Amino acid sequence: MTLPGPPVEVTKLLPPPAIRRRRLPLACNVVAEVLSQCADACLHPMIVLPLFFAVYLPTEREVGGAVALVLAAAAIAAGLGAVLTFEEHPRVRFGALLGATGGRALVLLLLAAASGRLTSDHIPRLNWPLYFLAAAALCAGFALPLRVASAGIVRAEGSWRTRWGRWAATGAVGLALGAVLARGQLARIGGVFPVGYRGLFLIAAVIALVATAVTALLWLGDLPTAPVRPRAGLAAIPELLANNLAYGRFIFFRLLYACGALADPFFVLYAVSELNASARVLVGYLLALALARMVGTFLWRGVSSTGGNPMVLQLVSFVRLLAPITALTLPPLLNSATLHDHLPGGNNAVVVAFGLVFVAWGIASAGLDLAVPAIQSGITTPRERAAASVVTGIALAVATVILPVGGLIADRFGYSFLFIAALVTGVIALLAGGLIDEPTTVIVRAAPTDHLPYRRNRVHREG
How far apart are CA 56 and CA 121, in angstroms? Predict the structure, then answer.
């Protein structure tokens, strides 16, 4: 006999989720990020590109202009690529990412194939290597935000306990690996041109080609869908610039910080022309920069978690000042009659100690890349973020004009005056960092027809 009782609810067991398919996009994007950073190390704008352009460009002003064109192309493309991350259809974003990654590989392959015909005599009449490098930077800048979005990583997460912090560390490790791969060819640049540079272009091209193949594997996985956000796009630019005081302060700091880079491409040229640094020493500079960036990414963990990202930017501005301070004080101090005879390495000690410039730059760039995306996302609403990405990209592209200005200062007044100008500009950027706020955002649920579903808290500091 069966006693009556409450009805038994039968739950249907669902099959386990396809974890492998979900993890595939993240794994592919992580590998592609490592490979892309490896290729970037072979074309680093602070060491490799200034040395390459200085072979056939007669003045520092022209060298600064060439580096500025490459950096401006990357900055504008990164802003446009960030706009495409708001595309709801993942296959559209995947197609753009694959096209940009493959385009970079193709351009670098063409550059590597044609570089065997280069001589320092006929390049000024053609100048096509500059256009190839600018096109490669354009593709690389466009692909970076798309790769982050395809991995499902939120760049607003600035803490190291989030996936964005781990993603930044992944890129730093890739840059260090690229420096190791590039060391053999960089050590050969002291020979007949373009020996060494041709090898660097070829390594970057092969790495970019492998990154394209890895990116193509994303088609096999489940690509994350972008969250639905208010469709304002570039139409929100006037509203952003007129109403968002926090973003205005932020972009003002970004412009000043970028202007502080007017001496960045010329540190390595100073080491070669004034300190007689050899090609092997330049390899050490690149390795020191890459390793400092990797270690710095880990060191900023505590500051980001406890002090916040605005504190990271202020400390980054301070650390970056060590580069012009070192360039101004260390060579004259070590070459003085008091210390020179007591140095164990003689002149080599001065050249090695000058590597502190690149160590400071690497540590500062690690903190900047970790904190800037988080702050920009925190002070803008989802309606404004696409417009903010474009405005930031344009502002950074315009700021690269400071590089030929720095070259002109070096031509007219010498490197010492250039380093003083960089130090003064860096101090101004350090003071401007105190204006940055990182307000929280409150999402107010509203009807889909409401054009302003987001409300931002009042900024903590006014005036």
Answer: 7
Alpha-helical segments (H) within 115-152? 123-126, 128-150
* Top-confidence residue, 414 or 229: 414
DSSP string for 166-224 = HHHHHHHHHHHHHHHHHHHHHTTTTSSTTTTHHHHHHHHHHHHHHHHHHHHGGGGS-PP
Which residue from 387, 455, 373, 448 is spatially nearest to 232, judged by alpha carbons?
Answer: 387
Q: Which two tokens stand for residue 305?
A: 């978690």
Confidence of residue 118 (pLDDT cuts 50, 70, 90): confident
Q: What is the pLDDT of residue 1?
A: 47
What's the rounded Cα separation, in Å, for the pair 211 and 356? 32
Cβ–Cβ < 8 Å for 345, 443: no
pTM (2 decimals)? Answer: 0.85
What sign does the CA torsion over 146, 144, 133, 104 have?
negative
Contact yes or no for 182/296 (Cβ under 8 A): no
From CA 433, how far away is CA 98, in angstroms rounded?
Answer: 37
C-alpha–C-alpha distance, residues 189 and 122, integer Å:
18
CB 290 within 8 A of CB 362: yes
Output Rg (C-alpha) for the chain, integer angstroms: 24
Helix (H, G, I), strand (E, B) or coil at 55: coil
For helices 60-84 and 402-413, the axis angle rounded to 10 degrees is 170
Give the confidence band of 157 by pLDDT, cuts at 50, 70, 90: very low
What does DSSP assign to residue 159? S
52-75 CB burial, b ≥16 within 10 A, e <16: bbbebbeebbbbbbbbbbbbbbbb
CA 161 to chain centre: 21
Residues 6+ apart with CB under 8 A from 268: 46, 47, 50, 51, 277, 282, 285
